[in-house]
Amino acid sequence: MGPHPAVAAIRLAVRRVLHDVLNELNDIPSAASSCGRSTVTRGPDGRPVVLVACSGGADSMALASALAFEAPKLAVRAGAVTIDHGLQAGSDLRAAEVAGRLTAMGLDPVEAVAVTVGRAGGPEAAARDARYAALDEAAERHGAAAVLLGHTRDDQAETVLLGLARGSGIRSLSGMAAVSGARRRYRRPFLQLDRQTARKACLVQHLPVWDDPMNADPAYTRSRLRHEGLPALEKALGKGVVEALARTARLSRDDADALDTWAAQADETVRDDAGLLECAKLHALPPAVRRRVLRRALVAAGSPAGSLFARHVEEVERLIVGWRGQKPLNLPGRVEARRQGGRLVIRQS
Asked: How far apart are CA 234 and CA 225, in angstroms?
């Protein structure tokens, strides 16, 4: 008898991602040498290292178990990182307990990493920033080819709704990418699987699961959306809302990718010999492309991408399409944008 359908589904998802990582590693040497950049691809024993980020929750425990099962068959060294955000009493003990479970699965290396969560952008954003910074450091430390994340289709639906509520553009509505980060580091195998599949896989494998109380705390926006917003939508619109939102994310991502490519090409055509953006040429671009060019310029000048919202870009755009002698704009990251002599000058103050 084969594995339970839920277990089979998560293992298949992980197997596909590992095959993708291995195929890309085989292509890296020639690509890396041609562009002159170094890449971290294999551990000390010659096997590629793949880490899983595991909180101890059902999604990431299911992911860890699937990685532990699939990696040896593909000569991949599988490890894990659990992050202690320090936001709850006893969080260090919880992280150590999760690390012990991961080690018992046969994962190696396994680390429990403590982080300090700041305040920038609110508690959820600050915790996310601290977590990804720690995962980046762990990946570099172990020479990991990839870090697997346990985001599910339900998480994707929540991300799309949050972007919609903020009035964000199509890039925000595209949700989380299956592959993201520097050198395509982060992989999300479960974006096509629902949360219940991961939980069922843990149940039938008798994997202990920790339900973070913060995920049920109505003080947090995502928690309210998960426990109140989405159920209300499904009650009003019927089942299938999560699947529809996830599908919207996939379609939006295709559109956003195409527009980003167009903007990257347009960026080279709207600058003068000194590299400054020419307002007349920016004005001639389609609005969706123009705003992307402006956002790229603001981020390049030092404005943090996570703090740069659509309203900021729209304010800068008004220097192009609604010029009435406005004063310079102060933007996140101490970046200033001003119109001067038909040029848009963006610099860090």
From this structure: 12
Each residue's pLDDT tens digit in the chain (349 positions)? Answer: 789 999 999 999 999 999 999 999 988 654 343 343 344 556 667 899 999 999 999 999 999 999 999 999 999 999 999 999 887 888 889 999 999 999 999 999 999 999 888 776 677 778 888 899 999 999 999 999 999 999 999 999 999 998 888 776 788 789 999 999 989 999 999 999 999 999 999 999 999 998 877 777 787 888 899 989 999 999 999 889 999 999 999 999 999 999 999 999 999 999 999 999 999 999 999 999 999 999 999 999 999 887 888 889 999 999 999 999 999 999 999 999 999 999 999 999 8
The values of phi and psi at residue 92, to 5°, are -65, -40
On whether the CB atoms of residues 43 and 238 are closer than 8 A, the answer is no
Q: Has this prediction a pTM greater than 0.85?
A: no
User: Which is nearest to 176 in space by CA: 193, 157, 197?
Assistant: 157
d(CA 168, CA 180): 20
**Is 131 in contact with 83 (CB distance < 8 Å)?**
yes
Those residues with Cβ within 8 angstroms of residue 191's Cβ, 6 or more apart along the chain or in another chain:
151, 152, 153, 156, 176, 178, 246
State how beta strands 277-278 and 343-348 pair. Answer: antiparallel
Buried b (16+ CB within 10 A) or exposed e, 311-325: ebbebbbebbeeeee
Longest dimension (CA), the chain: 75
Closest C-alpha to 14, from 254, 253, 192: 192
Query: What whole-number distance in Å separates Cα of residue 48 and Cα of residue 69?
Result: 16
How far is 135 from 209, CA to CA, in rounded Å?
21
